[in-house]
Write the structure tokens for this entry.
Amino acid sequence: MSAVAAPDHISPDRIVEFDYLDDPRLAADIHDGLLALKTEAPGIFWTPANGGHWVVSDSDLISKILKTPALFSSKQLQIPPRDDAPRMIPESLDPPEHLLYRRLMMEYFERSRIAHLQARVDHWTDLVLSELKDKPGCEFVDAVASRLPIYVFMEFAGFPLDRAEDFRGLVEGMFRSTDPIKRQEYAMRIMGELQQVISAKMESPGEDILSKLIQADFQGRKLTFEELMSIGFLMFIAGLDTVTNAMTFGIRHMARDVDFRRKLTANPERVPEAVEELMRRYTFPTLPRQVTEDMEFGGVTMKAGDMVLCLIALVGIDEDLNPDALKVDLDRDKRTHFGFGTGGHTCLGRHLAKMELETLYRRWLEDFPDFEIDPTHAPATPRGGAVMGIPELWLRLNA
């Protein structure tokens, strides 16, 4: 898509064809495809796809990029870059500005501050799973993974619950499209919905996080409408799509790995470890950055304005960091992964995400201890992009 000729500063031996939105290597399995790419290409290379950009698969280089915002900026998070892309506070900010907003928001996302949400997560999980009782099977993404995070997050953030299906459609449309123009159209529709929600809460605030942010003191002032829109957009897309994909990868693994599933069923107290291990094995976002100045990095010449895509899924399955990395092992001594980000941009919502995942896995194994992939349905083609995922997962629920 939108392939371009390589600029003069790109060495020919660093040019590799790779389309992170729709690459043939990813068509059967995302993680297998990324591992194949890692064996075929240098640890940092340039692809002509999507306007042309750098791709980094080497774990050490990824870590350096994500921890050096002075050289690799978060201000542009679109590949190809778009000047009209929605601003996402604090994700699309660099230090010191990033830290100011992050400190404001951390107050509402710390583990102790969200502990009261456990009862609501339990409620929504039980409600969603109750609809599967006595059914022989289900399409897990539609029945569970794309619904549960929506109900939890929309209640937490203060979005109207009667619009859950509409909002789910907008998020899926944005992330599933490989057309940058269509993705931007979905983003603008989301912004339109946010404008209505935030305007209503400014008139009549409640107890949800958006209302609290509207009333918060930030550097001796209130957040502007534009700042609230930016924060709301990030919360919207992060809260509704990432947990969906984590749930789907996790349940798919349990359906395939009978020994792991039985061990976890017999030891439900180890579900938090399972969440971390499954996130390590099946990390699914990609992280873009923009080069801020001309420099030599990782053996290549980069120019200011170059875009860089970090394949963070490969960190968790790096054999040097996680021996026997493809095995999901509850007894692993140490887990290294960037599934929830790293450094200053570690995911603010990770505690809520873990709460949802732990609750689902525990409840699912109580209700459906014996399940498997339904062989009567062909496996769905995975999707690439900023958040890689599995659009469908058909399961057989054995009595």
Q: What stands out?
A: The chain has a mean pLDDT of 92.
